[in-house]
């Protein structure tokens, strides 16, 4: 069964230090990294248990001067990349990379929502179903979290374009609601208002780990920084929000075993 329109199908790290980043995430999450065949940009694939779940792309030298910074970007699967890119622009978003064919990979476009948050839309060339996003499975993304400057507008944008649905909400006091989002009967993540003095608006992705405390130690031992956690969340799991040695923000989620 192929992925549905609106599914998260891939995650990609843009970084300034490919070797260091590969080493960091391999130790923290347990991924194995390999070079992508035929890539002329040192693209690398992260896998777990023989399953490809994410990629790594060095930031091109020319892009560093434009303010491109290390960070994780998500890919949303769509039925038609060209139509989706046009609809995103008409809804107040922007195209940063027009619809482009990548041999043996698929057709994709880099876009941003009306609040300036970057992501990709993609139609893969390969048959089958992406399991990059698989809740409750270690090594895969388990939660997609948007921090935005306008939660109401962002919710309207994504639900209209990708068929997502507004779920329940968890009040967070002055920060407003933590608004859950559903897709085809599955809770896929949440949206929240950006903290005034926090990072720029962006998607943050929580990758599953076998033991949150072991992962937390690996983060600091490998030169990363933990900004929040480990903290318990509903359901009994624990989360961490951190940044890698190149300052890319990421999340981890998993059980506490001690």
Written account of the structure:
With 258 residues, the chain is an alpha+beta fold. It has 2 domains: 8-124, Roll (2,3-Dihydroxybiphenyl 1,2-Dioxygenase, domain 1); 141-254, 2,3-Dihydroxybiphenyl 1,2-Dioxygenase, domain 1 (Roll). Helices cover 19% and strands 43% of the residues. It is built from 5 helices and 16 strands. Strand 2 (32-35) and strand 3 (44-48) form a beta hairpin. It is globular.
Task: Identify the notable features of this structure and list them briefly.
2,3-Dihydroxybiphenyl 1,2-Dioxygenase, domain 1; eight-stranded mixed β-sheet; 19% helix; single chain; VOC_core; alpha+beta; 258 residues
Portion in strands: 35-45%
- Low-pLDDT stretches: none
Q: What do the pLDDT scores average to?
A: 94
CATH superfamily of the largest domain: 2,3-Dihydroxybiphenyl 1,2-Dioxygenase, domain 1
The CATH topology of the largest domain is 2,3-Dihydroxybiphenyl 1,2-Dioxygenase, domain 1
Strand order, main sheet: write it out. Answer: 2-3-4-1-5-8-7-6
Domain module count? 2
Order of helix and strand elements from N to C terminus: EHEEEHEHEEEEHEEEEHEEE
Helical amount among residues, as a percent range?
10-25%
- What is the CATH architecture term of the largest domain? Roll
Helical segment tally?
A: 5
- How many beta-strand elements? 16
What is the terminal separation in angstroms? Answer: 39 Å
Pfam families: Glyoxalase
Protein name: Glyoxalase
InterPro entries: Anthracycline_SecMetBiosynth (IPR052164), Glyas_Bleomycin-R_OHBP_Dase (IPR029068), Glyas_Fos-R_dOase_dom (IPR004360), VOC_core (IPR037523)
Organism: Microvirga aerophila
